[in-house]
Amino acid sequence: MLDEMDKTILGILIEDARISLKELSQKVGLSSPSVSERLRRLEEKKVIRAFTVDIDPAALGYNLTAIVRVRPLPGMLHIVERLIQETPEITECDKVTGDDCFIGKIHFRTMEQLDTLLDRLAEKAETNTSIVKTSPVKRRLPPLS
After folding, report:
1. What is the pTM of this model?
2. pLDDT by residue (tens digit) across 110-127?
3. Which domains are delineated in the chain?
4. What is the sign of the dihedral through the CA atoms of 11, 132, 64 and 88?
5. Scanning 77, 122, 140, 142, which has its CA 20 to 30 A from the CA of 49?
C-alpha cells in the first residue's frame, strides 16, 4: 500500500506535522510538486486523515483521566451511544465486543465532575470506571512497515 518514500514522508510528518512543504521536499530529496502530489494521494486514500494539534488536557485544567466501560441497559444502545457522542469530556470511545459495549476515556477536573458525567449514563447503562494513574504508552500509530 505504501512505498518507502511515502513511509519516509509520513515518518517526518509524525515528528512535525507543521513542517513546510519546501523543507519536507528537501528532507526526502523530491521536488515540492512531487511531495505535494504524494500528500494529496495519501489524503485521498485516507492514510492521512488530518493535520492537527495535540493539546495536553492538563493544560486546560483536566488533571484527571478515567477509563469507563459502559454496558447499556436493554433497548438503550443507540441512546447511550448518542449520549457518549454528546459528552465532550469523553474524548475517545470505542464500540467493542465482550461484556461491555463501549470503552471510553474521560478527562475531568474534579471527582464531582466525574460523578456528574457518570450520573448522566446511570439511568441508561451500567458503568465501571478506573482512574488513570499514568500512561506509559501515549497514543501512537502502529509501525509504518
Report:
1. 0.82
2. 999 999 999 999 999 999
3. 4-44 (1.10.10.10), 57-131 (3.30.70.920)
4. positive
5. 77
